[in-house]
């Protein structure tokens, strides 16, 4: 693996802390819920691991974009949502238990499916495949990165939560707040460092990110309706489909792609925009609930 810069080490540590804090909130009961609602959980996984990746790959074949931008889109699509989707689902009065169950299963599946999806999509796009060959990137390095950033902190977090429940209850919320705050700070500092790029020329990239994120939400919406889920379940599946783990994508970009500027911008904009879109959906649903309550009052 290539030697990491200080910034790459810091970001990787922040992401590992985020994964660790998420694992502290996972319990055996979360996985037991999967057995109680398997159809809804499958509905939540399909947009993240099939529809959005395949749709993104097809879009990169159709669009004439720089290889690094297409690679960033593919990478983000390959990284399923994290714990933030659970918070947004809860705020939007969706089925939080379903959201947690989908996130728990997705976190485990991501160990295999994230590198698999990224590898096949990149390899089967002539532009990105040629670009990676030019960079001489070893696919095994991506697996190692995921092991250090995702698998190891996940395993440690689950172990700590099981063996030290009192300590876990005390540190879970502060660690979660700290890790999210540090990630947002890292993104903001990165954007400030490249503030000369924050011009109207960035609008096309932002539009691309907005459309990409909207497709994830749409895939979640369509899947939830195809599976004939209840309204709270539909909200959870829709949010899971539209909130990708852009933080994990940023970590992989930092470690494997030497913080390629184009890729960082795409992933950073995703990290900001999916919060805006997710909270926008949640606020709309709360408004719908209020209006419905008034109608039946």
Q: Can you put this structure into words, describing what you see?
A:
- The protein has 297 residues and is mostly helical.
- It has a single domain (6-188, 202-295), classed as Na+/H+ antiporter like fold.
- The protein has 13 helices and no strands.
- The protein has helices spanning 6-24, 28-36, 38-62, 67-78, 84-91, 96-123, 126-135, 139-163, 165-193, 203-226, 231-242, 246-256, 261-295.
- The longest helix has 35 residues, at 261-295.
- The chain is globular.
Summarize this, please?
The protein is mainly alpha-helical. It is built from 13 helices and no strands.
Features:
single chain; 297 residues; mainly alpha; Na+/H+ antiporter like fold; 0% strand
Query: What would CATH call the class?
Result: Mainly Alpha
CATH topology: Na+/H+ antiporter like fold
CATH architecture: Up-down Bundle
Low-pLDDT runs: none
Give the radius of gyration. Answer: 19 Å
Helix content: over 70%
**H/E series, N to C?**
HHHHHHHHHHHHH
Per-chain topology:
Layout: H1 6-24, H2 28-36, H3 38-62, H4 67-78, H5 84-91, H6 96-123, H7 126-135, H8 139-163, H9 165-193, H10 203-226, H11 231-242, H12 246-256, H13 261-295
